[in-house]
UniProtKB/TrEMBL annotation:
Name of the molecule in the record: SigB/SigF/SigG family RNA polymerase sigma factor
InterPro entries per UniProt: RNA_pol_sigma-70_dom, RNA_pol_sigma-B/F/G, RNA_pol_sigma70, RNA_pol_sigma70_r2, RNA_pol_sigma70_r3, RNA_pol_sigma70_r4, RNA_pol_sigma_r2, RNA_pol_sigma_r3/r4-like
Keyword list, A-Z: DNA-binding, Sigma factor, Transcription, Transcription regulation
Occurrences of domain RNA polymerase sigma-70 region (ranges): 49-118, 128-190, 218-266
Database matches in Gene3D superfamilies: 1.20.120.1810, 1.20.140.160
Organism field: Pseudonocardia nematodicida
Amino acid sequence: MHALAPPPAPTGSARDGRTGYDDLIPHLERLATIPYDAPERPALRDHVITEFRPLVRNLSRRFAPAGRGVEDVEQAGMLGLVKAVDRYDPGSATGGPLGYLVPSIRGEMKRYLRDHSWSVRVPRDLKELAVRVQRSADTLGQELGRPPRPSELARELGVGVDEIVDALAALDSHSARSLDAPVGDGESGDEAPLGERIGDDDPRLDVAAHRSEMHAMIGELPERERTILMMRFYGDRTQSSIAAEMGISQMHVSRILTRTLSRLRERMSEQDSAEG
């Protein structure tokens, strides 16, 4: 049997509508009968996938959320198309080529959006529950005339209230706010970017636990060593100015500081070892 020759591809709006791809049915059926290692299979497969690409492109424009690239969604849809073409079974397919291919394409698009459109990483089962919660919240909200309570959503979906609370928290994490977005009511003139209101790590926290112990150890130092240490690190004085005030050489000040700091480090290390 000779391979079915691909017909000229329809142009313009010929691919629109439910029957726009009917000319490809014989090629899908032929592809399903060709062994995977047959030499004519790759060309026919490429032709079918290429001709169905406008379908993927149209669906991706409907599914792509605002602010997210359509290309990523289209790529996911192409993966669904390839899988569906390779699995096509004329005996079980109903509703024409669109009735078979569209669910597979949409399924891959939805899976991509579920796994990649969240700002933070959320477990898959929680994402799926969050989608159900959102749909039920919309439906119940219309029936009740108000936002439904977590307990009402739990009864509607047959899950625990704690799971509903987790799902609602996950929905809040679906999209992130830009750190460059201004905050404030605009009336007070305080509209600094959100990023400027986020605090940094305070390096002083690393030594906060040892502050009281350090003060006690400094208090036990000889008066001259304690005075030089305080002048250098708390008064931000230079060694030369300390030497001039104390009436000693700068080299002597340096030796005293080195010896004092070494002694304090040893004391702190001994105390940490004892606590450990």
